[in-house]
Amino acid sequence: MRYFKNGERPSRAGPPAYFTGAVILDEIISAQAPARANLARVTFPPGARTAWHTHPLGQTLHVLAGVCLVQEAGQPAARLQPGDTVWIPPGVKHWHGATATTLMTHLALQEGDDTGKAADWLEQVSDADYAAAQPA
Fold it and tell me: What sequence ranges are listed for the domain Cupin type-2 (predicted)?
């Protein structure tokens, strides 16, 4: 077993190639092979979001605070509240983030494939697509 004490691993900024806004990533676990699980707490300030992306083995998001916008390509955006969970199947193009007015924190769980890759990152979400996803 390996224990991780609070504060042992510093928070880090989400890479600008994959995120719009000052997203903060807190690694919870990045399992060693043969395990594949990766779990992070991700905090999005108002207006922040991921780029479009897919996961080779899918992704689970569990909202801890705020309002989470999540959108599958070609579908309307969904709005999730604290305690809500969404399963995104393998290969589904999607993005997720905060609303324009409220910060959001979620847990993001995904597994790496046989090469260790857990996500395929695509283009940034356009401002127009993000604006269209905002709550009425």
Answer: 41-102
End-to-end CA separation in angstroms for the chain: 47
* pLDDT tens digits along 37-93: 999 999 999 999 999 999 999 999 999 999 999 999 999 999 999 999 999 999 999
Tokens describing residue 134? 């905002």
Q: Quick one: tokens of 3?
A: 């224990």
Q: Report the C-alpha gap between 1 and 35 in whole angstroms.
A: 13
Domain residue spans of the chain: 12-132
Neighbours of 135 (CB within 10 A): 11
Give the tokens for residue 48: 């922040």
Q: What integer is the mean pLDDT of 88-99? A: 98
Which carries the bigger pLDDT value, residue 96 or residue 33? 96
Q: Which CATH class is domain 12-132?
A: mainly beta
94 beta partners: 53, 72
